[in-house]
Amino acid sequence: MPRARSIAALVVDDQHSMRAMARLVLKEIGVVDVAVAASAEAAFEQMLGRRFDVVISDLNMPGTTGAELAERMKAHPDLRGVPVFLATSTAYRDQAGAAVDRFVAKPFVVAELRDALEAHLGALS
Prior knowledge:
five-stranded parallel beta sheet; Rossmann fold; 22% strand
């Protein structure tokens, strides 16, 4: 198992099973500080009270979408530097907008998520 680096990740998805899968994948690649939110609104509230190194959000959620969350973050002075990864299938990527830093496949692929994190945050182990 890789040595854990101190990275705080927030996973946003309206489906419990996807939040649980993301948490397992992140822990497998060495990210031990993983918080979850079931909506973009709940995620934004968490971000106002705590600093995260990366936000991994589903694109299509009821209410505020992952793309809208990314735009809101990029407009906020305390959150604009936090990378936003949208988890979605290729078919929906054109709906994301410019505020997204990276796309990752959904369901999550360990190597792809590790590579995306390392590209934005540096080596994980």
